[in-house]
Amino acid sequence: MTQQIQNLANEPRMLQERVKFLLDYRWRGNQREMARDLSVSQGLISKIVNGVQGPGKRFLHALARQTGVNAEWVLGGVG
């Protein structure tokens, strides 16, 4: 999984879209709930979904560990 995260610099827009999808699907669009579950700030979620900032390693690891979230899909778009 670490290698997959390191290779993600080439596809920041795709990651942003997957985060947006999970926000809407898993957290019903609630950034505060997503932030709480991932132990990050709501501001970070907002920056990622609005394309201001890309998701970092810690964020991606936390997202991939969530129940019902396919780590391979989050990190590589497969699955």
Annotation keywords:
mainly alpha, single chain, 79 residues, 6 helices
Structural features, described:
The protein has helices at about 1-5, 10-25, 30-40, 40-50, 55-65, 70-75. The protein is mostly helical. Helix 3 (about 30-40) crosses helix 4. The radius of gyration is 11 Å and the shape is globular. The two termini are about 15 Å apart.
Task: Describe, in short, the structure shown.
This protein is an all-alpha fold and 79 residues long.
Query: How many alpha or pi helices?
Result: 6
Query: How far is the N terminus from the C terminus?
Result: 14 Å
Helix-strand string: HHHHHH
The main sheet comes to:
none
List the SSEs and their pairings.
Blueprint: H1 2-6, H2 12-26, H3 31-38, H4 42-49, H5 57-64, H6 71-76
